[in-house]
Amino acid sequence: MVFRKLIEEETRMGPFQIMLATLMCFPLLLVASHNLMQIFTAAVPAHRCHFSIDGAHKANITHYINASGGANFSKDLWHAFVPMDPDRKPEQCLRFIAPQWQLLAGNKSSVGYETEPCLEGWEYDRSIFTSTIVSEWNLVCDLRSSKEFAQSIFMAGVLVGAFVFGGLADRFGRRSVLLWCSLQIVAMGSGAAFSPNFSAYCIFRFFTGMGMCGLILNDFSLAMEWMPIKFRDIVFTVLSYCSTVGQLILAGLAYGIRDWHYLQLAVSLPYFIVFLYSWWVPESARWLILNNKPEVALETLKWVAKMNGKQEEGEKMSLEALKAEMQNEVSATTSRLSVFDLFRTPRMCKITCCITLVWFSSSFAFFGIAMDIQKFKLDTYLTQVIFGITDLPLRVLANISMIRIGRRVTLASCVLLAGLLVLATLAVPKGVTVCLVSRGKS
Can you list the GO cellular component terms from the UniProt entry (predicted)? Predict the structure, then answer.
């Protein structure tokens, strides 16, 4: 009972647990910054076809300057080269085959003239987004789906990371994988910032997604396995709030850093700090016990006891007692479980399928809404702040409801309410849409 008495059955949070929980919060604050980063790094600025002025155009330009007095010349010149869309904004993917100088008068329609694709590239409005992957690699028009493809690649990395780093953590330890994933995020995230082309960017983002998933899994595992059972729910809740606060951090960073290269670096390099202080974080004593490392486990437990002001209790621990506890733990886990055990009985299969469906639908709706906030046609930074602020009180209410009413009723109510709120956006004015969607997403 050495481990249980010192850690699991403890009635208070010691200095070690408080410090560990604090350290484990920091990497989670930037999780949302990576998951939702393409809201800003892949934002689509207003754009139109680029056109060049040659010698044959100078006479027409001179005539227009003389006729208009030169007012708004540079602002209006595009009317002769680019048609207008139904909203009377420049067409984003078409230009006139030949300049239509008569349109500079401003009283004629641009419909009916021959057009062609943007053969000379695009010009982007950089007043809001100085630089994005869209403007850097021209991911517009025929390549507009590349933005979503890049995010899918990142999420594929998250999926692969769950399988890879989950197994590696059981084999090599939680701390070892946490160290590796922190370093991987720094390296791959920085690599994405300096990507020479879109293909390289997607590759770096894939491995960044892998690292993010491994970090999240082992961050939570390491924190929970060192916490007294009495406080695990509280610590888990606090850790989950960190990702919500991260949405606000992302909005602030993106507002201050408008170039996607620097924003990518700003959310990746801090994980080197995580890599450095993770050397101080001890490996899970439970993992050490289950993996036949009683000497290391004993030294670790004595160190934790000393930090918690229980040095006397720590000195009383013996290797023999820990080995006996290890034998009991190993005996209790002789039958190796796999994912297929979740489908072994009809009841377990039903529960697994229901939870999987809820998790899939919730994640699908969350990312589908969160990654497309630019289509609300409001200030992207403000919308992100609204989404982040809305999440916090709703998460608190959900946690209170789980305690007072129960998990099943709370889960069913939240899923039903989210669906109704999102559906309601079809029948309300545009000004109300963001309010409903932000609550439905949460």
Answer: membrane
CB neighbours of residue 406 within 10 Å: 10
Contact 316, 217 (CB under 8 A): no
Q: What are phi and psi of 324, to 5 degrees?
A: -65, -40
pTM score, whole prediction: 0.85
Rounded to an integer, the average pLDDT of 46-62 is 69
Whether the Cβ atoms of residue 190 and residue 269 lie closer than 8 Å to each other: yes
DSSP string, 310-345: -HHHHHH--HHHHHHHHHHHHHHT-S---GGGGGSS
Give the N- to C-terminal CA distance of the chain in Å, as an integer: 42
Structural domains of the chain ordered from first start: 2-44+138-336 (1.20.1250.20), 47-124 (no CATH), 343-442 (no CATH)
Separation of CA 403 from chain center = 28
Q: How confident is the model at residue 376 (pLDDT cuts 50, 70, 90)?
A: confident
Exposure b/e, 416-436, CB count within 10 A at least 16 = b: eebeebbeebeeeeeeebbeb
Q: Name the nearest CA neighbour of 38 among 270, 256, 254, 268.
A: 254
Contact indicator for 6, 310 with CB cutoff of 8 Å: yes
Centre a 10 Å sphere on the Cβ of residue 18 and count the other Cβ atoms it contains: 14
What are the tens digits of pLDDT across the range 137-160? 999 988 888 999 999 999 999 999
Where are the strands (E) in 358-424, listed by range?
A: none
Q: How far is CA 396 from the centre of its chain?
A: 21
Across 111-120, 293-302, 409-418, 432-441, least confident range: 432-441
